[in-house]
Amino acid sequence: MPPALAIPAIAGLAFLVLPLVGLLWRAPWATLPSRLTEPGILSALRISLLTATLATGVSLVLGVPLAWVLARIEFRGRRLVRALVTVPLVLPPVVGGVALLLVFGRRGLLGAWLDSAFGISLPFTTAGVVVAEAFVAMPFLVISVEGALRGADARYEEAAATLGAGRWTAFRRVTLPLIAPGVAAGAVLCWARALGEFGATITFAGNFPGRTQTMPLAIYVNQSSGKMAEAIALSLVLVVVSLVVMVFRRRLASGD
Amino acid sequence: MLKADIQLRLSRLDLDAAFTVESGEVVALLGPNGSGKSTTLRALMGLLPLAGGQVVLDGTVLEDPAQHIKVPPEDRPIGLMFQDYLLFPHLSALENVAFGLRAKGTDKKAAREKAAQAMARLGLDGLAEAKPGSMSGGQQQRVAMARSLVTDPKLLLLDEPLAALDVSTKTDVRRLLREVLRQSSAANVLVTHDLLDAVALGDRMVVIGDGQIVQTGTPAEVTSRPRSRYVADLVGVNLLRGTARGTVLDVDGGGQIVTTGAASGAVLATVSPTVVAVSRQRPEGHEPNAWAGQISAVDLMGDRVRVRIAGPPEIMAEVTPRAVDELKLDDGGELWASVSPSAITVYPP
Amino acid sequence: MKKILAGLALVAMLAACGDNSTDTPSGSATSAASGVTGNLTVLAAASLTETFNQIGKDFETANPGTKVTFSYGGSSGLAQQITSGAPADVFASASPATMKTVTDAGDAVASDAKVFVRNQLVIAVPKGNPKGIKGLSDLTKPGVKVALCAEQVPCGAAAKKALDAAGVKLTPVTQEQDVKAALSKVKLGEVDAALVYRTDAKSASSDVDGIEFPESSGAINDYPIVVLKNAPNPTAATAFVAFVQSEPELKVLTDAGFQKP
User: Fold this and answer.
1) More confident residue, A139 or B283
2) What is the rounded CA–CA span in Å between residue B268 and residue A32?
3) Is the pTM of this model over 0.80?
4) Distance CA B335, CA B315 (A)
5) Which residues of chain B does A174 touch, with a Cβ-Cβ cutoff of 8 Å?
6) Which of B73, B10, B1, B6 is nearest to B213 (CA)?
7) Residues forming beta bridges with residue B30, ordered by sequence position
8) Is the separation of the CB atoms in C43 and C91 below 8 Å?
9) B335 with B279: CB under 8 angstroms?
10) How far apart are CA B218 and CA A101, in angstroms?
11) pLDDT tens for residues B150-175?
12) Spatial CA neighbour of B318 closest among B293, B334, B339, B333
């Protein structure tokens, strides 16, 4: 391997891996079990797992049909719609949080109506965390599923039609099973992104332990008040979860 | 019974073909690549909208653009067998066959039973749980057949059903298909580019070329009196077009031949390559039909050789490989062809 | 490809040149003589935002050739940054406790820290006081959403002190990392009230009303300011700290609602 490639490659690898090594090196191994079972940390973990899973659920219910429309239906402005769907991917998360406030906040576009008509208020609630996480993570799922749909042979749906299956039946019994690996891989990515979300969550849902304080928020709060040991312990948990998720996703994507 | 009047505006061509198919009849749709045969099937299935015309099956109007009627494919009592089968890869053979029944509301158990029977009839016992990926081409083809037949469609469309099979499998499956089609009470349209399939399986042939029907008839009629270069080439006979004045035929494009017929006006004439004699010198004796031309092609076909002489008129002769050696046909050059007038069949176009 | 690499290199160089505290811009005779020149980095509590921006401008006018850059945030977060090695010249925090974090870590000498102003809490409500808040106990009325600073932030510590003194058990809907974040929640109308400094309510007087409450006098925050030990520009830093405590600048602070030390 030519040195001109090897040196930057090794530097790049070191750059990405050393921070993880740093975490492991400074981890409070001796006190880890007791720290991880502290109520504050357990509740942050619980909220993170719950909201990430719910956000993924929302993304599946809304995102798969959206991906199907983008992949299968020709309509004017399809390119523009696809670009809009991917905006949350490049938008700084905190901007997403501000935007969500302007729509779903108490005086927001929809929020004001939700509050007055149904008494539903999303900011500062766990549901609000789910909304913030779904906003940043759903595009991952939509893109992944759209790709899977494009790769799947649309002629199978035609074959299903010739056998008497209506569009919904064909989708349910033929298309969905064929794209299942792509959907699963997209869902895993979506879940991981939701788990790690910070900017939109803290801006839209606020920070309250036990209700809206997710793992990333808890890490930030602990770190900024000097409680490094707690911050590192929480960080380790997230790193392990992320590693597991990435390995799992690889296996799904390669089609098992 | 199917009454089809298919008018399509495609990117490559405009198609205008009207034909009928009786219940229990097999119509073979024949034509060169790109003539619109497969597209006709798709239009009948409803996968492609008509630009004009009508599709009526057993008295029900399935499509009529003028009256804004278009029944969607899933509601047409039509079965379509795709050229590449399109068996659902994630379902077992039995589930594939049962698919159409379940889609129309039959409960799982009854559908699976009926599917198993259909598979048994086609010699597919023991393959119920196999996935399409693990089956041979012939097995996949029979599963595809079972899948489209089990729903008892009123019209069965087969798109080049034997094209993807190797030669040995083809013979067996062709025989099976003939049995199945014979027993079916549906109207059947079979698209193929293989003359053997058309002749073996079809009750009637419809030949399509340049976006329209150029000839219809029984296989015997069509092959003995081809009306298009395409069919003539398929059958392997020479087809000459020209104007007759009694026993003299002025061939379009140059040349004159003598026949035994007494026709006048525009005519078609066929000559079997086997009766065309070739020689390097002008034939001795009184040959009313003898002319020379450059050798334009020498093709080996099994144990026979076809030599094409440019003429005019262009003619194809069949010779033995030995003759190729003796006459040094591979070197090209001028070659004389001669045909006896009695070997020429003349008929109206 | 080459163009992209060249472009990236150019951007990197420009960025590196942009912030160099040892870089001395061309100064006049006065700045050269007093030695107060160059760049100055000040980390200050969020509640000092508006006033310090003004004081910074005044300092630059008085000392041509200097450029003051501010970084505002929750004092506890800033203290954390300093002890982690953030390069800065001056630290102005909203509580002695957060200053202690810095002096305990050895990044400043404790005896050098001087209290230069004091700040008192008020209840910030959206303009017009729609929920009719009159005191701390009104904050626990059903349907009233309150934002507080997190406890480790000075304004949060003061709020806790005041609430405990009043015997009010308040559950906020959110714990913000600095006082400006809590204030913005009130400005947006997302919460009905927040405990912020009098100076913050005054600075946002067009959107927000500040309600005084008696218990706030028992939880007044002292604001210490100090020159950091590893200051890149100690001369200018010392001058700035003295400048802040001078009469005209103190007036800027008291006009904004701060109290004299």
Assistant:
1) A139
2) 97
3) no
4) 11
5) 88
6) B6
7) B192, B207
8) yes
9) yes
10) 76
11) 999 999 999 999 988 888 888 888 99
12) B339
Mutation site, A153, A157, A158, A163, interface B, largest B CB count within 10 A: A163
What pLDDT digit, counting tens, does each position of B192-242 carry?
A: 988 889 999 999 999 988 888 989 999 999 988 898 888 888 888 999 999
How many whole angstroms separate alpha carbon A129 and alpha carbon A139?
Answer: 17
Query: Coil, strand or helix: which one is B305?
Result: strand
Question: Nearest C-alpha of chain A: how many angstroms from C247?
Answer: 34
Q: Which of B62, B78, B99 to mutate to test the interface with A (most CBs of A within 10 A)?
A: B99
Q: How far apart are CA C170 and CA A131, in angstroms?
A: 26
**Residue B326: what residue type?**
E
Quick check: C150 contacting A, CB < 8 Å?
yes
Joined tokens for residue C156: 């949060």
d(CA B207, CA B228): 9
Question: What does B50-108 look like in DSSP terms, one character per residue?
Answer: -SEEEEEETTEEEEEGGGTEE--GGGSSEEEE-TT----TTS-HHHHHHHHHHHTT--H
Tell me the C-alpha distance between A237 and A197, whole Å: 15
Which residue has tokens 């900011």? A123
Give pLDDT tens digits for A58-80: 999 999 999 999 998 889 999 99
Question: In the numeric block, which tokens belong to residue A84?
Answer: 């809009």
Distance CA B85, CA B141 (A): 7
Q: Which residue has the tokens 């549906």?
A: B186
Q: Which helix (H) or strand (E) holds A143?
A: helix A126-151
CA distance A68 to chain B (A): 19
Taking CA–CA distances from A171, the nearest residue in chain B reads: B103
Q: Kindly state the DSSP code that residue B132 receives in the 8-state scheme.
A: G
Tokens standing for residue B307: 């030599």
Q: Burial of B314 by CB count in 10 Å (0-12 exposed, 13-18 middle, 19+ buried)?
A: middle
**Interface list for A 157-186 with B (CB within 8 A):** 158-166, 169-170, 173-174, 177-178
Rounded-to-integer distance, Cα B204 and Cα B200, Å: 10
Per-residue three-class SS string for chain C: CHHHHHHHHHHHHHHHHHCCCCCCCCCCHHHHHHCCCEEEEEEEEHHHHHHHHHHHHHHHHHCCCEEEEEEEECHHHHHHHHHCCCCCCEEECCCHHHHHHHHHCCCCCHHHCEEEEEECEEEEEECCCCCCCCCHHHHHCCCCCEEEECCCCHHHHHHHHHHHHHCCCCCCCEEECCHHHHHHHHHCCCCCEEEEEHHHHHHCCCCEEEECCHHHHHHCEEEEEEECCCCCCHHHHHHHHHHHCCHHHHHHHHHHCCECC
Token pair listed for C204: 């946002």
Classified as helix, coil or strand, B15 is strand
- The angle, 0 to 180 degrees and rounded to 10, between the axes of the packed helices B137-149 and B108-121 is 130
Cα separation, C78 vs C98, in Å, equals: 9
Among the ranges given (A36-40, B72-76, C216-220, C241-245), the one the predictor scored with the smallest mean pLDDT: A36-40
Strand, coil or helix: what is B303? coil
- Collapsing DSSP states into helix, strand and coil, what is residue B209? strand
One-letter amino acid identity for B297? A
Residue with tokens 């469609």: B153
Give the integer Cα–Cα distance in Å for C151 and C161: 10
> ipTM of this model?
0.81
Q: Which two tokens stand for residue B228?
A: 């298009």
The number of helix segments (H) and strand segments (E) in chain A equals 14, 0
Chain A CB within 8 Å of residue B133 CB = no
* Cα atoms in the 13 Å half-sphere on the side-chain side of C157: 16
- CA-CA distances (angstroms) from residue B16 to A252, B55, B58, B189, B204? 49, 13, 22, 17, 19
Q: State how far the Cα of A85 lies from the Cα of B80, in Å rounded to an integer.
A: 38
Q: Any idea what the Cα angle at residue C144 is, between residues C142 and C150, rounded to 5°?
A: 120
